[in-house]
Amino acid sequence: MPATVSTEAVLDLIRTELIDSGVEEETITPEAKFDDLDIDSLDAAELMATIKRKFHITIPRAELADVTVGQLAANVAEKAGL
Amino acid sequence: MTLPVAVTGVGSVTPLGVGAAVLASRLVAGETALVGGDGRCVEFDAGEFLTRRESRRNARFAQLALVAADEAVHQAGWSNGLPYPPEEILCIVGTGLGGAPESPQGTDATPLTVPLMMANSAAASLCTRYGIRGESFATSGACAAGAQAIGVAMGAIRRGEAAAAVVGGAEAASVPLICESFAQAGALSPTGRCVPFGADRDGFVMGEGAGILVLESVAGARARGAEILGLVMGYGASSDAHHVTAPSPDGVPAAQAMRRALADAGVAPEDLCYINTHGTGTPLNDEAEIRSLRLALGDALASIPLSSTKAATGHLFGAGGAVESIITLAALRGGTAPPTYGLSEPDRRLGELDHVLSARALKPGPSGVIGLSDSLGFGGHNSVLVLGAP
Q1: Which of B273, B315, B355, B381 is catalytic?
Q2: Which residue spans of chain B are classified as CATH 3.40.47.10?
């Protein structure tokens, strides 16, 4: 695990995960809210599990509500950088 | 009850290729897909057939099932919608090990681990894709699972409980944990050569694949003008009640399943034109299987052409019974029996048998072109299908 994690690296991971979940690539922008993306609870759980595995950061699933892709990435990068 | 059920679509993915036609043609050409003691579906690319989400949410065995089903459903003419009420269609996909995990470590678990491993996940995915709403589940009688699925569906259609069924088997268990276990159990060929019925046979070779069939009542298929590719005429099953991995040495329980299948089809041993054996190439299986066939078929066995296609496909475990039914149906319909690849010195201790050593034209029997495919699973599950040309 790197000592610090860039927001961009987290964004890349989230983008890849969402594409694998079947989300249209062009809809995945930093401003997009998870609520508006075409994912279900299992996709969300898989995303959180991947983030945990990769960055050792636990994000409660409820925190995805009303959050944008960019905000989640920044949140993970900030926690991972501590 | 001897009412046959119609097969209107078949599909397969095997080490011999993607598609039922290439499976049959390469078998008849005397080819094998086993390389270096392994049989993999190297031509299968999930991304070519499935969305990224389907690929992610289905373990390899279920991915193989989805692609095989797509071929079968298309061939049956179901592509533009189901021809029966969705709740009257069954979906049964057998598997031995389901979504065998690459790693058994708890630390590698993800939320998808369980949905990927579930033995029923292939049936569930097929239902979701095609909107099938009748009963769906997995049969799990190890290497008999695919045959069990066909047998169960045939019975339900005969009894009028279902109008049609999408059935078969799927397996992709070639992960280190499983291969090592089979090797340690002494079932896997240490030389990497699968020679069913050979004097020097020493075990099976791992394969992977899926076979899916669309079954309908003959009346239903005719009413909608569907082409009938073949018939499922009878099914018989039994249990050894003997040992978790070894077959019953006297061969009596498997023979009973064979007799039941023939009786169910209303067919005599002399009516059989071809036998696609379980023929794994382990010393124990081949000996016990031939003993069972001889008990069930008597003197008729010696003159019925028989072969094992596992030397060409590898052992497909839970997919075996379904893929081998597709192979048998192709042989009956095309009039040519595929050979046992690589068999040059048959084991004489097995008695007089008519081994198909190179592709051979089948001679129709007194009741038409009828064949038998038997599947014998770990746990002592014996499942036998009697199949017919249309």
Answers
A1: B315
A2: 5-230, 234-388
Of the residues A25, A39, A42, the best mutation for testing chain B's interface (the one with the most B CB atoms within 10 Å of its CB) is A42
Could you tell me the CATH superfamily of domain A7-81?
A: ACP-like (1.10.1200.10)
**Chain B residues near residue A45 by CB distance under 8 angstroms:** 111
Measured in degrees and rounded to the nearest 5, phi and psi for residue A79 equal -65, -40
- List pLDDT tens digits, range B280-313: 999 999 999 999 999 999 999 999 999 999 999 9
**3-class state of residue B266 by DSSP:** coil
pLDDT tens digits, A24-56: 999 999 999 999 998 998 999 999 999 999 999
Instruction: Determine the Cα–Cα distance for residues B314 and B56; give it in Å rounded to an integer.
Output: 26
Say if residues B206 and B174 touch (Cβ distance below 8 Å). yes
CATH architecture of the domain formed by B5-230 = 3-Layer(aba) Sandwich (3.40)
- The per-residue pLDDT of chain B, averaged, comes to 96
Asked whether the beta carbons of residue B51 and residue A50 sit closer than 8 angstroms, the reply is no
* Residue contact A20–B53, C-beta within 8 A: yes
**Domain boundaries of chain A, sorted by first residue:** 7-81
The pLDDT score that the predictor gives to residue A82 is 54
Residue of A nearest to B111 (CA): A46
Closest by CA to B265, choosing from B4, B55, B49, is B4
Per-residue pLDDT tens digits for B116-129: 999 999 999 999 99
Using pLDDT thresholds of 50, 70 and 90, give the confidence band for residue A3.
Answer: low
Does the pLDDT at position B342 exceed 50?
yes
The one catalytic residue among B41, B91, B127, B143 = B143
Shortest distance between the Cα of B296 and any Cα of chain A, in A, equals 51
Considering only CB atoms, which chain A residues are within 8 Å of B55? Answer: 20
- Helix boundaries (H) for B309-374: 310-313, 320-334
**B74 assigned to active site:** no
* DSSP-derived secondary structure for B202-244: --B-B--EEEEEEEEEHHHHHHTTPPP-EEEEEEEEEE--S-S
CATH number of B234-388: 3.40.47.10
CB contact (8 A) between residue B112 and residue A19: no
CA–CA separation, B304 vs B300, rounded Å?
A: 7
Q: Which of B41, B273, B278, B381 is catalytic?
A: B278
Chain B contact set for A46 (CB, 8 A): 110-112
**Half-sphere CA count of A45, side-chain side, radius 13 A:** 11
Among chain A residues, CA nearest to B115: A42
